[in-house]
Amino acid sequence: MEVMWGRDGVWLIVVVVGFLYSICEGGSTSSFLRNDYLSLDMPLDSDVFRVPPGYNAPQQVHITQGDHLGKSVIISWITPDEPGSSTVVYWAQDTRLKRQAHGFFVTYRFFNYTSAYIHHCTIENLKFDTKYYYEVGIGNTTRQLWFKTPPPPGPDVPYTFGLIGDLGQTYDSNTTLTHYEESPTKGDAILFVGDLSYADDYPFHDNVRWDTWGRFIERVAAYQPWIWTAGNHEIDFAPQLGEARPFKPYTNRYHVPYKASGSTSPLWYSIKRASAYIIVMSSYSAFGKYTPQYKWVEKELPKVNRSETPWLIVLMHGPMYSSYENHYMEGESFRVMYEKWFVEYKVDVVFAGHVHAYERSERVSNIAYNIVNGLCRPLNDESAPMYITIGDGGNLEGLATAMTEPQPRYSAYREASFGHGILDIKNRSHAYFSWNRNQDGYAVEADSVWLHNKYWTSLEHASLATQRSNNLQQTATQ
Ligand SMILES: *[C@@H]1O[C@H](CO)[C@@H](O)[C@H](O)[C@H]1NC(C)=O
Ligand SMILES: *[C@@H]1O[C@H](CO)[C@@H](O)[C@H](O)[C@H]1NC(C)=O
Ligand SMILES: *[C@@H]1O[C@H](CO)[C@@H](O)[C@H](O)[C@H]1NC(C)=O
Ligand SMILES: *[C@@H]1O[C@H](CO)[C@@H](O)[C@H](O)[C@H]1NC(C)=O
Ligand SMILES: *[C@@H]1O[C@H](CO)[C@@H](O)[C@H](O)[C@H]1NC(C)=O
Ligand SMILES: [Fe+2]
């Protein structure tokens, strides 16, 4: 559809739209009314924390992707009474052939807490797009569970990710997880943007709350991979308790395939999954120039082949764009370091948590500033990622309700309610993001947006522009 306008007509529209835009600060702030109290943690004897019956029964079973491509799975679980076996028995749904893989277990101490036996076992060379059954607890109480491997990476492979952040273990956390499970758009894997158990909010960082959290999420995490990002509540830095090694409980309990992407730390790594390339970063590790994380990201971004995995997604805990008062500007130094690259490499979407609320940005960038030129405001930028804060899982610290006013232009929608997101990738050019609020029905989308792939749509625009200029040249020569 090409509509022909006179040159003056076009200018008039540009001026009017520009004027409307300049008098209208920002997007919309939801007027949804909510209870403003702190959320309560579920008590230790809650149903969701029940220990599975049987001698030395495996508990806290959770899985994550085990390699770069999606053909391996890391299976983790905890046995309470004795080490027991670290072996996993597994088989594809359509075969009788049972295979075995042998893992290992670790234990750790934190102040006066001693962990039980934490097993990790990677099962490899799986078939893509296949349901597998697996058994853990061989030799004592054996439990059988299952998962599905993703389809092979490819540009038009549909895939659905759930987005959860700052979950904790309150009644609201349980509602968030239930809404994710009951969503009519079934998620295949969860992108988790950090802050898992909030055990560090308890006296002496009571690590029993890491165990209850592991049992709470098992009902989802044993059946589909959670892609982990570390948040500030994973640091567990407590020199006053003799605990000065950051991330100790987290890195013992939640393993990730960081070596497969050439990373030297489990706190930053990447995976391919279906049509997505996911880069996980660490807001709470050194990220300045020359640091290991910086050097890894610098080599990582140019590696992404958008013809194979069109959707480039970055996960981190602290948001680079957030207009809430809570944690205001905490992501600023990270933005200064990395925003330029995110625009240059056309990252599609950056998901973060930390702020206990929901917010979606316009496509803006703020990379022109050089200290002396005064260009220090975010501008519309079609190459820029969309920034989505989804730190609204429901932890005991409650919601971040105070917002900066007026709502800045870069903020498209914001609301302080608990909930979760779904990123539904349709093909190389289209993905649909929706946000569900816990007070609504499972199928209700309180906010939603179509994402147009930044790599493929910019190619389309470029080829349209080429066609147009070819047409113009033809017209001129006729
Ligand atoms: C750890 O120490 C605290 C403070 O002395 C105490 O309340 C708690 O019961 C201890 N926990 C264990 C497992 O010993
Ligand atoms: C539990 O399993 C381990 C490993 O298979 C075995 O060595 C141990 O004897 C079992 N314990 C009991 C009480 O069956
Ligand atoms: C958590 O949610 C599940 C599923 O909706 C429910 O069965 C369970 O009773 C809930 N537990 C608590 C403590 O609210
Ligand atoms: C990128 O991926 C496509 C599709 O899988 C493949 O044909 C192409 O060779 C890859 N390019 C590079 C540079 O690896
Ligand atoms: C990609 O998906 C969108 C949304 O479902 C659809 O409108 C579009 O036609 C699809 N593109 C291709 C090339 O199939
Ligand atoms: Fe948090």
Automatic annotation (TrEMBL):
Residues 57-152 form the Fibronectin type-III domain. The keyword Transmembrane helix does not apply. Its cofactor is Fe cation; Zn(2+). Its EC number is 3.1.3.2. One of its GO terms (molecular function) is transition metal ion binding. It comes from the Eukaryota. Keywords: Glycoprotein, Hydrolase, Iron, Metal-binding, Signal, Zinc. Belongs to the metallophosphoesterase superfamily. Purple acid phosphatase family. This is Purple acid phosphatase. It comes from Senna tora.
